Every structure is written in structure tokens, then in C-alpha cells.
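Render this sequence as a predicted structure.
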Amino acid sequence: MNRLKTTFLGKNKNRTICMSMVIIAYFIIEALMISGSLKSLFINLLVPVTSYIIVALALNLVVGISGELSLGHAGFMSIGAFTGVVVASVTETMITNDIMRLVVAIIIGAIVAAFFGFLISIPVLKLEGDYLAIVTLAFGQIIKSLINNTFLGYDASGFHFSFITNNVVLDDTGMMLINGPIGATGTNRISTFTVGIILILITIFIIYNFINSKYGRNVMATRDDRIAAQSVGINIVRTKMIAFVLSAGIAGAAGVLYGLNFSTLVPAKFDFNQSILILVYVVLGGLGNMLGTIISTTILVLLPELLRFLSDYRMLIYAIVLIFIMIVTNNPTITSFLKKILNNKKNKGDQNDG
């Protein structure tokens, strides 16, 4: 019985630590907001930070756990964002409660993004390495281009769609949902920091439960040795497809949260640079390290804005911080030194308990 309990706690230790840190951070930030200690700039960044944390965790599932390099998560994020904007705008009169409308938009946005993830995974996951990265990169650019040329309106008679040229004609009650390169404008900002934190906790719970499941173990076995995994009967493509589709759905949910935080959303926001930036968050946080991803994402999203007062020097300082983090996280000597300090503290704590 004790052995089973120890095994269960061991599997869920990282998840518990990760979720506990997020909850503690939430209550600290809420207390600071209530006391008026936070500046408006920082408050305005809270929802984007939670959105980027969620999409970075989703990408870490593919890059860190599955071992595949994907450069198209900005595309899944954009699908979720514009789907969420459309759903929230259309259901505004039917669902008057903002939180309920946001939840409905997140669910639908995640489902649509997961569906596109399934479609793209069919040809993509038959590839490996650089070829897979190139195709996912192309997918992200194609999605951005498609949304950039989409004109979608809604009025009493239903939806009106046009592609490349704006031929949408609406009655007096109509509204333009997606207006080509202009994107979505006049959107009600219904995203909240609390919903973002809840979505982070749900994402952590889903990812860790997936990792500890049969499918997660199959994914990691495939990552470590593709031939050995195939020899014991693991379906390589199907196994990686599950992780990819799950990751796409989570990225779509993050996109909804992000999109409904702004009154104006343009397709150009979800470009190649966005995908690279999300990958940087994952790499600097540590592949497969969810807590590290949360910390690195928070720091790297906030840092450029917090250094804005330095004008032209802020990006230089940002680059220096990036280099420093890369050196620290990828230097075996520094890593072993930090582990040694932590082990010494742990041993001292055990001796004191004894």
C-alpha cells in the first residue's frame, strides 16, 4: 500500500509543485491589485502573459515530450483567436454573461484548432526533423495569409463570406467580424486574468495526466528510440498525432483568451516571429520542463515592456538577458553546481528532521 502511495505521489509531484506555484502567484498578484500596488501597464499584461504561458506549455508537449520541432503554433493560436472573436460576437445577445460567453468561445476555439491540428498532422507527422519544422512553418504562414484575405460578416440573415476581395454586403443590423488585413475590430474585451489562471491549471493537469498515461509513455518511447518503439508494436504516427492534436487544441484555447483581450486583432500579429518567440520560451525554460516554461515565459513577456523606459537600450538588455539564460540553462557545470546546492540543502533538511 505504501509503495503504491509513493509511486502515485512521485508521478504527481511535478504537477502538484507546478500548480501550487501558479496558485500562489495568482493570490499574490490579486493581493497587489487590490492594494493598488500594481501599475496599469503590468495589469494590462496579465492576460497576454497567461495566454503565452498556455501556448508555450502546448508547444512543450510537442517539442519537449514528443521530440518534434514545430514552428506552426502561432497558426493554431490565430485559428483559436479569430474563432473565439467570431463566436463571442455572434453569441453576445444569446449569452449575456461575459464569463460564460468566454468559456463557450474557448471550448469552440480549442475544438476548431484541434481539428486543424488533426488535418495538418496527417501529412506532417510522416516527416522528421527539419522537414517537419519547415512544413509546420509553412502551415503557420498559410493560415495567416488565409485569415488576411478573409472577409466575414454577420446580420439578421446569417453569415456572409468573401475571399480576397470584400464583397460582403450587410443590412443595418449587421457587423463585420473579420475584415481582411484589418482583422477583427470593435471586439468586446471579455478575457480575464482569473480565467487565464484557471486555463493554465487545466493545461498543466491535462499535460501531466497525458504524460503519465499509456499514450504519453508511448510518445516518450517513440521520442527516445523510434525503431525500438515500432518493434514493440507502437503506432508511431498515431501516437504522435494524439500529442500534436492535443497541443493544437490547447494553443487554440490560448488564442481565444488572447484574442478576446483586445478590441482590435490583426492577422499579422500571428506571423513567423510569433512562432519563434514561443519556441524561445520553451527552449529557455527547458524541454519537457513545464514549471521552467512558465517562469521563462513570464519573464520574457514582461521584460521588454518593463524595460520600455530605457527606450533604444531595452532590446539590447533583453538580448543580454536571453544570452545569460541560455548560458545558465545549457551549461553542465552551472547546472550540476545548482543541483549540488539543492541536494546539500535537502540532506541538511533530512538530518534536521532526523
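Summary. The radius of gyration is 22 Å. The beta strands are 150-155, 158-163, 175-179, 184-185, 264-265.
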